[in-house]
């Protein structure tokens, strides 16, 4: 997954400094891509977006990095409605991040990609439901 995701970022000419998404589904995707980047000498830090900030510890919604004015790719394991990706996007943008696009492992082709693109976020998936013979 890390290699495929990292290569897809290059194909899309997305050059993020940060990669992450809504926990838990996005976590292994983001960290696998970041690990591949590190192995290739590319700085790409991963982060996690909590569903809600905790009332203890750091109290932050985004854990792992300081977003600021940084190019970000939001990742998902599966896109269905696009709601989880949009939730992560809103958290990133609230911290000043610039979302380059959304990368998913699987697009279930149930309208999520269209919703994300209609909201102005280019979206790509490594495979679709049709690719898997599910449509």
Description:
With 135 residues, this protein is α/β, with parallel strands linked by helices. It has a single domain, classed as Rossmann fold (3-Layer(aba) Sandwich). It is 32% helix and 27% strand. The chain starts with a helix and ends in a 7-residue tail after the last strand.
Through-space gap between termini: 23 Å
Radius of gyration: 14 Å
Strand composition percent: 25-35%
Largest sheet: 6 strands, mixed
SS-based class: alpha/beta
Shape: globular
Total domains, how many?
Answer: 1
Topology as H/E string?
A: HEHEEEHEHE
CATH architecture: 3-Layer(aba) Sandwich
Question: What brief labels describe this structure?
Answer:
135 residues, alpha/beta, Rossmann fold, six-stranded mixed β-sheet
Summarize the structure.
The protein is α/β, with parallel strands linked by helices.
List the helices and strands and how they pair.
Blueprint: H1 2-11, E1 18-22, H2 26-39, E2 45-49, E3 62-63, E4 71-79, H3 83-94, E5 98-107, H4 112-118, E6 123-128
């Amino acid at each position: 997954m890390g290699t495929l995701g990292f290569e897809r970022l290059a194909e899309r000419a997305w050059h993020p400094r940060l990669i992450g998404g809504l926990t838990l589904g996005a976590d292994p995707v983001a960290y696998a891509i970041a690990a591949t980047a590190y192995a290739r000498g590319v700085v790409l830090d991963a982060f996690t977006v909590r569903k809600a900030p905790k009332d203890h510890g750091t109290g932050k919604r985004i854990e792992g990095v300081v977003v600021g004015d940084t190019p970000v790719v939001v990742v998902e394991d599966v896109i269905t409605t696009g709601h989880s990706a949009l939730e992560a996007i809103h958290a990133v943008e609230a911290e000043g991040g610039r979302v380059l696009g959304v990368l998913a492992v699987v697009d279930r082709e149930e309208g999520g990609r269209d919703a994300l693109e209609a909201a102005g976020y280019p979206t790509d998936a490594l495979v679709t439901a049709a690719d898997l013979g599910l449509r």
